[in-house]
Specification:
- The protein has 4 domains: about 15-95, P-loop containing nucleotide triphosphate hydrolases (Rossmann fold, 3-Layer(aba) Sandwich); about 100-135 and about 430-525, P-loop containing nucleotide triphosphate hydrolases (Rossmann fold, 3-Layer(aba) Sandwich); about 150-265, Ribulose 1,5 Bisphosphate Carboxylase/Oxygenase, CATH 3.30.190.20; about 300-410, Orthogonal Bundle (Helicase, Ruva Protein, domain 3).
- About 40% of the residues lie in helices and about 15% in strands.
- It is built from 17 helices and 15 strands.
- The chain has a 6-stranded antiparallel beta sheet with strand order 7-6-8-5-9-10, covered by helices on one side. The protein has a 3-stranded antiparallel beta sheet with strand order 2-1-3. The chain has a two-stranded antiparallel ribbon with strand order 4-15.
- α12 (about 380-390) crosses α13.
- The chain binds zinc ion.
- Zinc ion (ZN) binds near residues 292, 294, 409 and 411.
- Zinc ion binds near residues 292, 294, 411 and 412.
């Protein structure tokens, strides 16, 4: 190992400590009693043959001792949470300041890892959207609404003054079944009427509906003319209906038969679709609560690539035009193909470009939809996808992998989240818009939120915005402003990914400090 610094120290003065980091007698791993003096506030490079002990000196001796001293400085209360680090094999280290290490692993190949998740910025964005996102209906684009019980009653009294209404509690939404027990149970509880598929009906003994049809059923909790003198009755009927309807209630104007929907959870005022209360997981493409059900949050789908299956259309199938199955052999596959082609008067020996559209389609995707087909053929592309995804055998999967490519997911268009999650917005942007911005734009957007929120929301947003600003500012300072949060970590260059990790390390150190300060504070106040 070459050490580009003087190797002396016997006596170390205070003067030396301010200007040098001095290591005496390092013996960690393969180091043989190495002593070095490294100038501080300068860049120092340790070079040498592989195996000569560069990492043993930098990581296992200097960094390890720095970390040990930091942990040692914490109170014994804090230490019980982390245990201790063993002292490296070294006689003495002096002039050591706090240490940070960025390890040498270059990239994270996990396809789910992005600049946003690695820097933890995405965690704060998810939190911000969960607490302050505004929900919009994916059906109509309208702002979703949510009412308190009081608001529902106020609304009802104002809008239906002197009109006759039915207060309905939805019990069954678009489901099959005969529901005999349900009607029996309601009858026992003293209710007389239900609304089945839009018709108000008396609950007679043994009432049931066609079990193989899809039904909408509501309980008629009350029918009443809305007048101020009956406020108490209206209030109690609304409460009952909300209990039966699990926070959802229908008000029907008995004259026009029009239905109005009220809910204590988020619903579309026109179409009545509802969203669950958002949580940070709603915006995570790594959680089943947030990810797109089609691609499971990857943003891409792995599908058969026709250009790989058929590489040269001038060749016939017999001559190996379908790469995935090779040249003609006497086997079932070619036997079937021959029969399928015969339907369109095509032959195995015909160049693929001369085959009919229908033949090519059947060969690739099968004849499953054709009721009159004499035999079922799965289709080569379909079989490739199945072999690739089912993971029944490694051999099959490896064969299929040659003909698979990644395509943007057709459900989420690469945005990785379910549609409900993509319909929460802050200042006009949804999560996908935000992560698609480069960090300069993102920083401006975060700054714009300082004046966007009002009232109580300002207080909720304050800490989250502070964290987003600090972290993003750091990334801008290290020259990464051109990156977007959705950028895959695996596609970053070595230098980019080291700077990203530097940002993460910097903030996790800050978090440890905070964590221990709080722990010590709690300990002190407990005493
Ligand atoms: Zn998707």
């Amino acid at each position: 190992m070459e050490i580009l610094v003087e190797t002396i120290p016997t006596e170390i003065s205070q003067e030396d400590n301010t200007h040098f980091l001095t290591v005496t007698g390092a013996e960690e791993h393969n180091l043989k009693n190495i002593s070095v003096k490294i100038p501080r506030n300068q860049m120092t490079v340790i070079t040498g043959l592989s195996g000569s002990g560069k990492s043993s000196l930098a990581f296992d001796t200097i960094f390890s001792e720095g970390q040990r001293r930091y942990l040692d400085s914490l109170s014994s209360y804090a230490k019980q949470f982390i245990g201790s680090i063993e002292r490296p094999k070294v006689e003495r280290i002096s002039g050591l300041s706090p240490v940070i290490s960025i390890d040498q692993k270059t990239t994270n190949r996990n396809p789910r890892s992005t600049v946003g998740t690695t820097t933890e910025l995405y965690d704060f964005i998810r939190l911000l959207f969960a607490r302050l996102g505004e929900a919009y209906s994916y059906n109509t684009g309208e702002r979703m609404v949510r009412y308190t019980e009081e608001q529902i009653i106020d609304n009802l009294v104002q809008r239906y003054q002197n009109q006759s209404i039915a207060i309905l509690a939805p019990l069954v939404r678009g489901r099959k079944g005969h529901y005999r027990e349900l009607f029996q149970d309601l009858s026992k509880r003293g209710y007389l009427k239900v609304r089945i598929d839009g018709e108000i009906t008396e609950i007679v003994p043994k009432l049931q509906v066609d079990r193989y049809k899809i039904h909408d059923i509501e309980l008629v909790v009350d029918r009443i003319k809305v007048e101020d003198k009956d406020l108490q009755r209206i209030r109690s009927s609304v409460q009952t209906a909300l209990d039966f309807g699990k926070d959802l209630i229908f008000i029907q104007n008995l004259k026009t038969e029009k239905i109005e929907v009220f809910s204590k959870s988020l619903i579309c005022p026109t179409t009545g679709i509802s969203y669950e209360e958002p949580s940070p997981n709603t915006f995570s493409f790594n959680s089943p609560y947030g990810y797109c059900p089609t691609c499971k949050g990857l943003g891409v789908e792995e599908k058969a690539d026709v250009a790989k299956i058929i590489s040269d259309r001038e060749i016939s199938i017999a001559d190996g035009g379908i790469v995935a199955i090779g040249k003609y052999k006497k086997n079932n596959t070619f036997n079937y193909l021959q029969k399928l082609l015969a339907v369109e008067k095509d032959k195995l020996e015909t160049p693929i470009e001369k085959l009919s559209e229908k033949s090519i389609k059947t060969i690739l995707y099968g004849n499953g939809s054709d009721e009159k087909a004499p035999f079922k053929f799965e289709g080569i592309a379909t079989q490739i996808e199945r072999s690739y995804h089912d993971e029944i055998s490694d051999t099959l999967k490896n064969w299929a992998a040659n003909y698979i490519s990644e395509y943007p997911c057709e459900t989420c268009h690469g945005q990785r989240l379910r549609k409900e999650s993509l319909h929460f917005k802050i200042n006009g942007k949804n999560v996908a818009d935000v992560t698609a911005m480069d960090l300069y734009e993102f920083y401006d957007w975060v700054l714009s939120l300082d004046t966007y929120f009002t009232g109580n929301d300002t207080i909720i947003a304050r800490d989250i915005l502070k964290e987003l600003k600090e972290r993003t500012h750091f990334l801008l300072e290290v020259g990464l402003g051109y990156l977007s949060l959705k950028r895959a970590t695996g596609s970053l260059s070595g230098g980019e990914s080291q700077r990203i990790r530097l940002a993460t390390v910097r903030f996790s150190i800050k978090r440890y400090h905070l964590y221990f300060r709080r722990a010590e504070y709690r300990f002190a106040s407990a005493r």
